[in-house]
Amino acid sequence: MDFLRAHADGVLLGINTLVEETQLSGNRRPVYVIEDAAVRGLREKLGRGTEKNIFVTCAAALDLGEYRVFDSGPLETFIITTTIGARRLAERSSHPHVKVIVSGEGDFVAVRNVHTPPASRNSNTALRRRPDALRLYVPRGFDRRKVHHNFAA
Q: DSSP alpha helices (H): ranges in the chain?
């Protein structure tokens, strides 16, 4: 797993993966980062920059404080969500360092439309104008049924 993270721009996860793994562990874990020091060194040599966790949720009402992965730390966290999900996150006014990206309305997140705002675009940012160019590691079991991912359109 670490080897895949070393080569990827980011790890794309459904928010339910985080919720379920947190419930199983009984604490605020997990944080999805490279654990092996040698593999972190490989990531540096590859010029991949800061590790990124990218969570996808349609409109879940999340309390980011319940999950350690959203605390300030060694990685960047993004949440791709709908207008409803972004509004719910904004109402809580917590974790300003977490980048919320709105892409979709209602029950569907439209990944093909994802891009970062102009002020945050740089070579180390995982989500650029062309999300189809990302090298993402998508874990087995990721539920794509509610995510539009046709980049050709």
A: 2-7, 15-25, 37-45, 83-92
Exposure letters 39-51 (e unless 16+ CB within 10 A, then b): bbebbeeeebbeb
pLDDT one-digit tens code per residue, 90-110: 998 899 999 998 888 876 787
147, amino acid identity: V
Separation of alpha carbons 150 and 153, rounded Å: 6
Range of the domain at 104: 2-139
Model confidence band, residue 142 (pLDDT cutoffs 50, 70, 90): low
pTM of the model: 0.75
In a domain, 147, yes or no: no
Is 21 in a helix, a strand, or coil?
helix
